[in-house]
């Protein structure tokens, strides 16, 4: 496993919200998905994941419920709420604006 | 929708911590299991997979805390942390904690007590069934209704019952061998039916059995009377007590600590039904017999009740036999029976309580200023830390909240201390016995209303003490503070603490001046010339049983008593009278038009009238300016005569000697020509503070009207206390059913001195309390100021300043603060003490220069004393040590 790059807290929140757009997932699955899709660059440790998940839950952007995985284990599944979807849209737009701006500066300054 | 979820979550993490913790543990465990599953699926052995999973998981505890932190990212969580942090900070500085607890504690204690007093006297309803439906009723014509009026009004269906009561009579109660005077509450037959006063034993009398026409012999006693006078006898129901020589049966004992319908904490000992035997003039038309109280019907508002009542009164008036029995069609008062509406306009009692409330409010302000000053000092010491945190991006609101939490702790602990002090203080006041004719049961207690007031005080104290320091601390300009300068935005001298201290001194001075005025007032009233001898006289009150003896028989008995009293060794002179000045039986006031011999037109005169026997003026130590005293021959058979006082002569005779002239004075049946036979010196009649009254003295045997009370005054050369027992003995031999009470004149007048004494003690103590608190504040400010200027002082010393110079420097600093404070305080006092003029006797003005001067000097001395220690410490600074440290 490579060294996980540092992610600012807000960005992690954004990634988690995005991962949950399709279907509810439990914590481990979220971390695994992010790792997969980012081609192993972003490896989220439990120390960052669970505080982020609980913070998002406290803010009402995701909701949690205990359920069963397909292998029959108990796990806590997180799901996007309506507020979460709205937050995802606005945060994604924000991120895109930011990264475009950074890119411009890096290329032309 | 979202907010509901959020709140539910936050509440859950707050109140169901255990469940939430378990949930987290379960979630983390599930994560590990899933990780293991994944490793196994990828080919690891279960054991190795488990190890790898746990290793990758890292330290659980650490990020469990992080998770917990997200739960606490809310107001409540911050608050809990702030509270704990603030508490630890406070306990590290015990001085701040102790001073705050004492200051706020005392401030809150006195405030709570005065509020409880005001509440009991003015806001509490009487103890009765459904007391919110009771109304006090008073006509515009007279405070009392006659018996016929009550009868007519109580039979009308306008209200759900109208009852009456009065507490102006006295009865003799035979206790063993001696008779004791009691002040009963005389009530109409339906009183207990209408009011529903709670009864603890037996029952109250009913309207049917207690009708005045039946001459009922039943009585209900108070709990206090049952305990103190009847020995808490469990077989009290059915027991007989002898009142006015007749046996009455006790049918009930009331519940303890009831609030009487009369208010003012009065607690009558016995309740008697009205009858002609206790009140001979009961059936006289227009005689003022009872004050009325009514009960509104269930569906009536106060306005509806009033309308119905006045309509019924108007109807009844048409049917009254005598025009004297009218007057209730026009009402002066028809209001709920809650304290304030009891006895007409509030009056001096309410005014005094208002003054007290203001005073204790000011004391609390001083206390809060103390705490604020201490907090300011502490914040000043922490200014580096605060500036750093501000620079690092801490929100100002967050910091203010944190500093406020300290203030919250102080206010809460201080208030708790105050409530703890208030409890015993109130118990102390409850037990105080005042020289009233009827027992007073103040019933002060820490009930819901009072506790609510205390909570309000917490809020106020917290805001006053902590808000300003918190705001000020976080407002500092960063750069200068991060250097070690110590100057503030307001300039080097005028810090917030100084402003506070100046305010404290000003308020304290105002309080002290008020207190001094009250104390000087007391001193004046004590030494006030009452016009008669109060130091060498004793007075015996003889209360004959109603109607047992004819007037002549009573007069003869009094003569015998007088002869015996004169025979007691040490008695210089003795006389009889129907009224003792400055007591409740202080004589009657008359205002009428009379004809004076030799004056053409009728003259309107106002005078105070007393019936006195021969030798009265020499017994009272009053001077006879002209003419003579009354003699034994001035009786019913002789020509009517009177003696007047100097004021009467000054007002109506132009100062010319009136002896020998005749006036037509009102008598039982028309005007009677009466000769003036003497002129005596002026004296006080009703109150100590009254302006000089004109007075007319009538010979005892020629008196109009009649009363079963007679007083014998005896004068001695030495201590009148020595006369008490012999007088009691010889007078008591007259008749066993008469109640005899002998007291020194001083003691008999205690009731007149009471208000000034109470005022002086209460306000005096509060003034001293305020002074102590203000001085603590001043001490703090000066010390702190000196400590801040340590560097400057060190330089001065090393440049040659002597110790005296340094002390002078600090004291000058203190004088500025105290001086400005005193100037402001004097200004405030001049403005604020004007309404107090009502409480002071003649001759003492609210602007009394001696009081102002004396108080200012006293305050100045105390201020210097408070500043001495900091000055002394400053002078002993070792300049080398200080400068090396820099």
| Percentage of residues in DSSP E strands of chain B | 15-25%
The end-to-end span of chain A amounts to 35 Å
CATH class of chain A: Mainly Alpha
The topology string of helices and strands of chain A comes to HEHHEEH
Largest sheet of chain A: 3 strands, antiparallel
Q: Poorly predicted ranges of chain A (pLDDT <50, ≥5 residues)?
A: 1-5
**Which of globular, elongated, flat, extended, rod-shaped describes the shape of chain A?**
globular
Structure in words:
The complex is a heterodimer of chains A (109) and B (886). Chain A has one domain: Winged helix-like DNA-binding domain superfamily/Winged helix DNA-binding domain (Arc Repressor Mutant, subunit A, Orthogonal Bundle), CATH 1.10.10. Chain A has 4 helices and 3 strands. Chain A has helices at residues 9-19, 27-37, 46-58, 82-108; strands spanning 25-26, 62-68, 74-80. Chain A has a 3-stranded antiparallel sheet. In chain A, helix 1 crosses helix 3 and helix 1 packs across helix 4 (82-108). Chain A starts with 8 loop residues before the first helix and ends with a helix. Mean pLDDT of chain A is 86; it is low at 1-5. Chain B is an alpha+beta fold and 886 residues long. In chain B, 50% of the residues lie in helices and 16% in strands. Mean pLDDT of chain B is 81; it is low at 478-491. Chain A binds chain B through residues 26-29, 32, 45-48, 50-51, 54-55, 57-60, 63, 69, 71, 73-76, 81-83, and chain B through 1-3, 5-6, 9-10, 13, 23-24, 26-28, 30-31, 33-35, 37-38, 57-59, 62-63, 66-67, 69-71, 73-74.
């Amino acid at each position: 496993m490579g060294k996980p790059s540092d992610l600012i807290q807000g960005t992690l929140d954004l990634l988690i919200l995005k991962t949950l757009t399709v279907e509810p997932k439990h914590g481990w699955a979220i971390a695994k998905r992010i790792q997969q899709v980012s081609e192993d660059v972003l490896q989220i440790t439990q120390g960052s994941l669970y505080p982020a998940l609980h913070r998002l839950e406290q803010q009402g952007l995701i909701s949690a419920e205990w359920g069963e995985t397909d292998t029959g284990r108990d796990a806590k599944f997180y799901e996007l709420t309506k507020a979460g979807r709205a937050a995802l849209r606005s945060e994604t737009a924000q991120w895109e604006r930011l990264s475009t701006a950074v890119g411009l500066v890096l290329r032309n300054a | 929708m979202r907010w509901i979820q959020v709140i539910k979550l936050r509440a859950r993490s707050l109140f169901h911590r255990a469940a939430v913790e378990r949930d987290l543990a379960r979630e983390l465990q599930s994560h590990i299991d899933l990780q293991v599953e994944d490793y196994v699926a990828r080919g690891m052995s279960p054991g190795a997979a488990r190890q790898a999973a746990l290793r990758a998981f890292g330290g659980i505890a650490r990020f469990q805390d992080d998770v917990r932190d997200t739960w606490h990212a809310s107001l409540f969580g911050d608050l809990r942390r702030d509270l704990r942090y603030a508490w630890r900070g406070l306990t590290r500085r015990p001085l701040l904690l102790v001073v705050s607890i004492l200051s706020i504690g005392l401030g809150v204690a006195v405030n709570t007590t005065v509020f409880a007093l005001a509440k009991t006297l003015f806001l509490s309803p009487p103890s009765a069934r459904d007391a919110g439906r009771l109304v006090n009723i008073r006509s515009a014509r007279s405070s009392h209704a006659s018996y016929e009026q009550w009868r007519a009004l109580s039979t009308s269906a306008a209200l759900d019952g109208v009852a009456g009561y009065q507490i102006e009579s006295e009865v003799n109660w035979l206790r063993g061998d001696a008779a004791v005077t009691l002040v009963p509450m005389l009530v109409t037959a339906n009183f207990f039916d209408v009011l529903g006063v709670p009864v603890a034993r037996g029952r109250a009398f009913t309207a049917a059995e207690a009708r005045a026409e039946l001459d009922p012999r039943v009585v209900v006693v108070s709990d206090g009377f049952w305990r103190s006078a009847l020995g808490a006898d469990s077989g009290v129901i059915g027991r007989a007590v002898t009142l006015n020589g007749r046996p009455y049966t006790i049918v009930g004992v009331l519940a303890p600590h009831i609030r009487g319908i009369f208010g003012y904490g009065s607690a009558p000992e016995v309740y008697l039904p009205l009858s002609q035997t206790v009140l001979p003039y009961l059936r006289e038309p227009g005689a003022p017999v009872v004050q009325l109280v009514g009960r509104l019907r269930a569906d009536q508002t106060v306005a509806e009740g009033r309308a119905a009542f006045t309509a019924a009164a108007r109807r009844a008036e048409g049917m009254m036999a005598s025009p004297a029995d009218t007057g209730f069609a026009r009402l002066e008062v028809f209001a709920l029976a809650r304290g304030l509406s009891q006895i007409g306009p509030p009056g001096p009692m309410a005014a005094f309580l208002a003054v007290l409330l203001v005073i204790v409010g000011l004391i609390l302000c001083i206390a809060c200023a103390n705490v604020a000053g201490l907090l300011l000092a502490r914040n000043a010491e922490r200014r580096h830390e605060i500036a750093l945190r501000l620079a690092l991006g801490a929100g100002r609101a967050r910091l203010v909240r944190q500093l406020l939490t300290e203030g919250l702790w102080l206010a809460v602990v201080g208030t708790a201390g105050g409530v703890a002090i208030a409890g015993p203080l109130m118990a102390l006041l409850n037990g105080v016995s005042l020289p009233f004719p009827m027992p007073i049961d103040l019933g002060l207690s820490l009930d819901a209303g009072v506790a609510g007031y205390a909570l309000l005080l917490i809020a106020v104290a917290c805001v006053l003490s902590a808000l300003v320091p918190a705001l000020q601390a976080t407002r500092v300009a960063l750069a200068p503070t991060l250097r070690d300068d110590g100057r503030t935005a307001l300039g080097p001298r005028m810090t917030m603490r100084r402003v506070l201290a100046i305010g404290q001194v000003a308020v304290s001075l105002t309080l002290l001046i008020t207190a001094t005025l009250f104390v000087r007032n007391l001193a004046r009233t004590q030494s006030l010339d009452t016009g008669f001898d109060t130091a060498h006289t004793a007075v015996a009150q003889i209360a004959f049983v109603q109607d047992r003896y004819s007037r002549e028989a009573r007069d003869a008995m009094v003569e015998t008593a007088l002869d015996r009293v004169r025979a007691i060794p040490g008695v210089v002179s003795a006389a009889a009278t129907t009224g003792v000045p400055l007591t409740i039986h202080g004589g009657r006031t008359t205002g009428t038009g009379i004809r004076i011999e030799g004056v053409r037109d009728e003259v309107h005169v106002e005078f105070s009238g007393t019936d006195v026997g021969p030798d009265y003026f020499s017994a009272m130590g009053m001077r006879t300016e002209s003419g003579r005293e009354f003699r034994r021959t001035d009786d019913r058979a002789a020509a009517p005569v009177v003696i007047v006082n100097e004021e009467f002569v000054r007002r109506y005779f132009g100062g010319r000697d009136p002896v020998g002239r005749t006036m037509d004075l009102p008598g039982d049946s028309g005007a009677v020509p009466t000769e003036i036979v003497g002129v005596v010196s002026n004296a006080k009649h009703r109150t100590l503070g009254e302006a000089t009254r004109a007075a007319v003295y009538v010979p005892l045997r020629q008196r109009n009207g009649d009363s079963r009370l007679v007083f014998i005054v005896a004068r001695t050369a030495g201590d009148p206390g020595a006369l008490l027992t012999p007088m009691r003995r010889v007078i008591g031999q007259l008749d066993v059913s008469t109640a005899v009470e002998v007291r020194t004149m001083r003691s008999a007048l205690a009731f007149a001195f009471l208000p000034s004494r109470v005022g002086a003690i209460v306000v005096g103590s509060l003034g001293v309390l305020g002074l102590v608190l203000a001085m603590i504040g001043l001490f703090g400010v000066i010390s702190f100021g000196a400590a801040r200027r340590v560097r400057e002082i060190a330089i001065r010393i090393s440049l040659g300043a002597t110790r005296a110079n340094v002390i002078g420097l600090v004291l000058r600093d203190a004088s500025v603060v105290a001086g400005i404070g005193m100037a402001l305080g004097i200004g405030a006092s001049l403005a604020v003490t004007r309404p107090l003029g009502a409480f002071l006797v003649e001759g003492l003005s609210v602007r009394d220069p001696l009081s102002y001067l004396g108080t200012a000097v006293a305050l100045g001395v105390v201020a210097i004393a408070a500043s001495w220690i900091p000055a002394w410490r400053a002078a002993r600074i070792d300049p080398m040590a200080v400068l090396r440290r820099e």
